[in-house]
Design a protein that fits this description.
The protein has 325 residues and is of the alpha+beta class. It has 3 domains: 8-71, Structural Genomics Hypothetical 15.5 Kd Protein In mrcA-pckA Intergenic Region, Chain A; 75-168, Pseudouridine synthase (2-Layer Sandwich); 171-318, Pseudouridine synthase, CATH 3.30.2350.10. The chain is 18% helix and 26% strand. It has helices at 23-30, 36-44, 116-123, 156-167, 240-247, 294-307, and strands spanning 8-13, 48-50, 53-54, 66-71, 87-90, 94-99, 147-153, 172-180, 187-191, 194-196, 204-206, 214-223, 226-233, 270-278, 285-289. Strands 5, 6, 7, 8, 9, 12, 13, 14 and 15 form a 9-stranded mixed β-sheet that branches. It has a 4-stranded antiparallel β-sheet with strand order 1-4-2-3. It has a two-stranded antiparallel ribbon with strand order 10-11. A hairpin with a 2-residue loop joins strand 2 and strand 3 (53-54).
Length: 325
Amino acid sequence: MEIDVGAKIETFELDATAAGIRLDKYLAQALPQFSRSYIKKLIDQSYILVNEQSAKVSQKLRETDTITAILPPLSTHPSPEPIPLTIVYEDDETLVIDKPAGLTVHPAPGHPDHTLVNAILSRCPAIVSNADPARPGIVHRLDKDTSGLIVVAKNDFSQKYLAEQFKNRTVKKGYIVLVQGKLSPKQGKIEAPIGRHPRYRKRMTIVERGKEASTEYEVREYLGDYTLLEVIPLTGRTHQIRVHLSAIGYPVVGDPVYGVKITFLNRQFIHAYRLGFRLPSTNQYQEFTSPLPPDLEQALKSLADKFQYLSEDNKICYTSQPKGG
C-alpha cells in the first residue's frame, strides 16, 4: 500500500472496554467524522491496520490490540459533476439555489463527491476560492437532509461580502419545521449553548461551556399531536434547530438523531424557505422564498387526513407569510 502525501495517521491503544467489539463498530465511535461505508472502504483497502497487519471489517478486537488508521487527505480540488440544480436567482456575483434533501453541501470525509460543490463547479467552472479551494463559493451550510435556500458566492469578493453579513447576523433566515407535540406558548425564544456531545462525537447537545445559540419560533398550525413552526435561528450552530427543539421537549419529525421517526416521511421535516441578504452586486437587500417540496407537502396532507384538519379554504396553511417581515 502506498501512503498518500498528506495522509493523517492516528493510533489507538485499546483496553478492556474494547474487547470483543467489531473493528468497524469501534472505528465508527473512534472516527465519528467518517461514515460507516467509508470506514469499511478504508479497512478493505488496508488503510486500517491492527497490530500492523491488514484486518477485516468484522474482526473482533482484543484489549491488547493497537489500531493504526491511515487517513487519506481530501482532495483540495473537487471535480465538476452534472448534478441538476434549481436556481432561484443568479447574477455575476451570486447564486441562490433551492437545495434538495439528500444532497451534502461540500465534500467531507466519507462524502468526497456527489455534493452541491461538485454541482456548482459543473455550472460555474470559473468559480474559485482562495480562502478554501475545497469549498468554493460556500458561505453557509444546510444539513444533508434539510431542503431549501442556500446562497453561493461566485468569487472572493462576493464570498467576503456575504460572509461578513453572516458574521454580523444581518442575514434573515426562516425555516418551516414540524415537531412532535403541541408546542406552547405559540411564540418564544430558545437560548441555550450548544457544543459537541461528550460521548457521541457526531452529535451536538446543550452544554454549559458550549457556544452561544439562540432560536426564535412561532407556531403556524397545530395538527393533532404535531405543531408546524416557523423557526428563525439567530445564530448558526451545527444542528441548532434540531438540538434546541429537542431540548425543550418538541423533537423534529423525521430526525433520526434528535427527533422522532414517522411512517410517512423518510427525512427530517426542516425546510429553509426564506433567505434575505444584501446582494454583493448592488448592495440592495433582497429576500427569496421557496415552497415546501412535495415530500413535506405530502407529510402534512397525511397528517391532515389523519386528524381531519383542514383550513377554511380546504388547504393546509403552511405557506402563509411570516408576521413582521
